[in-house]
Specification:
The protein has two helices and eight strands. By secondary structure, the protein is of the alpha+beta class. The strands form three sheets. A three-stranded antiparallel β-sheet has the order 1-2-8, with no helix packed on it. Strands 3-6-7 form a three-stranded antiparallel β-sheet. It has a two-stranded antiparallel sheet with strand order 4-5. The relative contact order is 0.20. Bound molecules: zinc ion.
Amino acid sequence: MPLKFRLRGLAETFVEEIRCPCCGHDGGDEGDQGFLTEFTRVTYDGIIVVIQCEPCGHVFVPNGQKLGVINSTKLRSAVEKDSWNTGQPIFLGMEQVRLEVERLNAERGSKIH
Ligand SMILES: [Zn+2]
């Protein structure tokens, strides 16, 4: 069953299947067990789902995401407001999110060693 991530009236993203590229964890019967979504980013392109695998701690961007933007003007202002509130940089789209994910994994690696 595809998983749905939604910001009401702004954007929604469907993910067909989540499987950890590091340890192969696939979320069990429900497809979303043992995954944390706290790194998911809202960008100008829509919601880009970022998953952290609980069993192994790896952070990844699941393949096959279908990004839908419902209201791009409101989405943009929500992204800007969020950036203002949190002090985080604005994420424009997938490329930036992928770089962030690489950084998170590198940080995690350096904590272990
Ligand atoms: Zn894993």
